[in-house]
């Protein structure tokens, strides 16, 4: 069932922050081989109080304010690093005049849902607050990520604005709305019941689908768990005013046998088609691309941003 919370952003933010953070999702095979990233213009900029609340920033060469691309890494909400940013994406974006930032966020077992989401929302707000210092256009911001970082990007993009206009903190007053989203191996839901239906039994047995919520043994099918599944699913918040999405997948399109290793299929392209079905129903652009069809994620993803940035 798809629902949307009817609650003021400030009140919702308080509730979400009250629920301490813990999550996991397998490191994403969507990313491909890494090569060394060039040194950022600003390294390990602190956007929050935790040691992992840091980001790197590469500035586009632009006389006028540049659009911003903000990256969130994969790794099951329990691993990963901002250094996993695709070098080709960075190169393509900077070449197109887009400033790039990559953020870390807290990991389980230190935190559970919704902590990682809220860290990333804070990173976005901090980047907007730094618009003048970084020469960026706060009206043109895109999110990008893989696996857990992709789901986080979708959750923030579809969620009602988390800005707290009455806050004494100027960062918290910044908007979390974005122009578009580019993701790889994205999960539009973290509800194991929906994952089972869409991506297969093996995918629904991914350990992260329990541990990301900080659930105790035996709680996976409880009322508490079902409530959390709905709150954590990006698709829950999708409405007709939400931004367009480019979603890329590399896992085989074929069905995953139920006897497969637990977690197999957690990046299945059927999850992208599930997202597209819901976005198409609202007439929101959703492009689902697969590596086997010859699609190039860095080039096409940045081209998608350029279109929605008006470049």
Automatic annotation (TrEMBL):
Belongs to the 'GDXG' lipolytic enzyme family. This is BD-FAE-like domain-containing protein. The lineage of its organism: Bacteria, Pseudomonadati, Verrucomicrobiota, Opitutia, Opitutales. Pfam families: BD-FAE (PF20434). Keywords: Hydrolase, Signal. Residues 55-258 form the BD-FAE-like domain. Residues 1-29 form the signal peptide. InterPro entries: AB_hydrolase_fold (IPR029058), BD-FAE-like_dom (IPR049492), GDXG_lipolytic_enzyme (IPR050300). One of its GO terms (molecular function) is triacylglycerol lipase activity.
């Amino acid at each position: 069932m798809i629902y949307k919370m009817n609650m003021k952003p400030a009140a919702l933010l308080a509730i979400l922050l009250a629920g301490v953070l813990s999550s996991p999702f397998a490191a994403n095979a969507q990313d491909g081989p890494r090569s060394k990233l060039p040194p950022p213009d600003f390294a390990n900029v602190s956007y929050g109080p935790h040691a992992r609340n840091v980001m790197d920033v590469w500035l586009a060469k632009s006389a006028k304010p540049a659009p911003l691309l903000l990256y969130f890494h994969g790794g099951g909400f329990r691993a990963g690093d901002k250094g996993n940013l695709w070098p080709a994406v960075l190169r393509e974006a900077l070449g197109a005049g887009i400033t790039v930032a990559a953020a870390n966020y807290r990991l389980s077992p230190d935190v559970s849902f919704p902590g990682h989401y809220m860290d990333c929302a804070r990173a976005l707000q901090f980047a907007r607050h730094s618009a003048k210092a970084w020469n960026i256009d706060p009206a043109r911001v895109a999110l990008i990520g893989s696996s857990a970082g992709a789901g986080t990007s979708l959750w923030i993009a579809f969620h009602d604005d988390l800005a707290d206009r009455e806050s004494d903190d100027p960062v918290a007053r910044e908007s979390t709305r974005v122009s578009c989203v580019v993701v790889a191996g994205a999960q539009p839901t973290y509800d194991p019941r929906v994952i089972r239906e869409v991506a297969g039994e093996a995918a629904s047995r991914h350990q992260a689908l329990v541990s990301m919520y900080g659930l105790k043994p035996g709680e996976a099918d409880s009322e508490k768990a079902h409530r959390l599944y709905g709150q954590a699913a990006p698709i829950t918040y999708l409405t007709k005013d939400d931004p367009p999405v480019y979603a890329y997948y590399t896992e085989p399109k074929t069905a995953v046998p139920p006897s497969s290793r637990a977690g197999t299929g957690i990046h299945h392209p059927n999850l992208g088609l599930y997202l597209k079905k819901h976005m198409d129903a609202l007439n929101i652009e959703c492009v689902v691309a697969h590596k086997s069809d010859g699609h190039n994620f860095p080039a096409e993803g940045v081209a998608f941003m350029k279109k929605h940035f008006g470049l």
